Structures are given as C-alpha cells and as structure tokens.
Amino acid sequence: MITAATNAERIRFVGIRGWVPAALVLALAGVVLPLRHALAVATDPALPPASDSSAMVPLTGVGVLGLAVAAAWSVSREYSTGTHDVARLLQPSGWRWVLAPMTVHALVSSVAAALAALLSVVVVALVTPDDRQEGLGTMSAAPMVARAAVVAVFVVVVAVAVASVLRRTGPTMAVVLGWPLVLEPLLSGVPAVRPLLLGSAVPTAICGPSGVPDGSWGSVSAAMAWLGLLAVGAFGVAATVSRR
Fold it and tell me: What was the pLDDT predicted at 15?
C-alpha cells in the first residue's frame, strides 16, 4: 500500500513538473550565488580565502529554504485543489498519504541539495585563484555534500508535515516562510534558543561548527540529531492529524 501511494505521488509529481523548483534552486544555490562569491573573493583581497564551507553558504540558506518552500507549496496545493481527497478514496489510510509526498519530495530535494553542494565547490574552485583558496576541493567537500543531502531530507519532511497539517497554501506558506525569515531573526538574540533555530542547526549540520559564526552548536552530530528529531516529530504530528 505504501508503494502504491508513493507511486501515485511520483506520477503526480512528474505530471505537474514538480522537479522544476528543485532545478531552479540547484542553479541558484549551486552556480549563480557561488559564482558571485568566487568573483568577490578573487577581486577583493580583504575577504577571507574561499573554502568548502564558504562555497556552500548559499545552499545552507537560500538553497535549503527554497527546497522546503517548493515541497510545501506542492503538497498544500494538492490539498487545496482536492487531489488529496480523491487519492484518499482509493487509500483511506491517512498516514500513508503523508509519507508518500514526504518520500518523493525528500528524495528529489536530497539529490538537488547534493548536486548543488558539489557544484558550488566546483564553481568556486574554478573561478577563484589558487592563492585565494583554503582547503577547497571536491574530495575534502565530500562529507559536506553527503550531509547536505541528509539535511535536505530532514527540512523537507518538516515542510511537508506543515503542509499536511494546515492543508491550505496561504497558511502553509506563511509558516514555512515566516519561520526562518521572521520568527528566527526575532529569537536569534536569545542565547538559550539560538541553537534550536534552523538558521544555526542547518549550517552547522552541513559545514560544521565553523559554518556558524556564533558557534551555537558544538558538533555536526548534535545539529544533525536535532534536525532529525524535528523531522520525526513533524511526521508524527502530521500522521496523527491525517487520521481525522
């Protein structure tokens, strides 16, 4: 039954060209913004040398947020247009229809994030002069690329869970965009809360503690565990609500 639900979601995803937003995020976070960073480093000696973590800064911010927004918008539209209701007539088990879009969007976002991470390093390495590079290379960036794929899964699962609970595009977008762009900046001044924010956890999980200037998280594993816990909790809430 899970396979049937996931296959139906995959067909719908391909039919509406759901991969297009992921491709746009890939181009922006993997090529355009890293290229801008590389040109700035190459022409301004006052800037720190380019590194794997600096090349992936666009991915940890705009890239991950873009993937989350695309997934949440797609799933919320499915509820708003009634497509989800028709699907549930064929498969009444609600949690499967929460898991299905999560699986499809998480897999697509994971691949897009990994490719964006890899491309960002390649672009910066090609454009930046050798004397303006510091620990920059595809081999050294491999662990970050792998972590970017996992982080994208966690964040997209949370975004899809929000869409599955709210079931309307407007409220869903308000939460998915308002959380990182409005709420987190307001809470970032509270030391006790700062480590729990995605703005701290996502860069640390991908780039390590050096990816966050304030060092909110002491290790990659701690930040990754927190994001994983958020994803599991979000799925649990969405699965519970879907039974109503």
Answer: 56
- Give every CB contact of residue 7 below 8 A, 6+ residues apart in sequence: none
**Considering only CA atoms, which of 149, 66, 72 is closest in space to residue 105?**
72
- The pair phi, psi for residue 133, each rounded to 5°, is -115, 145
Find the distance separating the first CA and the last CA of the chain, reported in whole Å.
19
- How far is it, in rounded angstroms, from Cα 206 to Cα 224? 8
Using one digit for the tens of pLDDT, what is the confidence trace for 93-125? 567 778 888 888 899 999 999 999 999 999 999
With CA atoms as reference, report the closest residue to 136 among 64, 207, 214.
Answer: 207
Render pLDDT for 1-52 as a digit per residue (tens, 0 to 9).
Answer: 456 556 666 666 665 566 688 888 889 989 999 999 999 999 998 898 999 9
- Token readout for 146 is 């792998």
Q: What global pTM score does this model have?
A: 0.87
Query: Measured between alpha carbons, how far is 100 from 120 in angstroms, rounded to an integer?
Result: 30
Closest CA to 38 of 117, 115, 145, 121: 121
Q: Can you tell me the distance from the alpha carbon of 44 to that of 25, in angstroms, rounded to the nearest whole number?
A: 27
Structure-token match 């982080």, residue found: 151
Helix (H, G, I), strand (E, B), or coil: what is residue 128?
Answer: coil
Q: Looking at residue 48, what DSSP letter applies?
A: P
| 91 has a pLDDT exceeding 60 | no
Q: Is 14 exposed, middle or buried (0-12, 13-18, 19+ CB in 10 A)?
A: exposed
Residue positions counted in the chain:
244
CB environment 200-209: b (16+ within 10 A), e (fewer) = bbbbbbbbbb
pLDDT beyond 60 at 143: yes
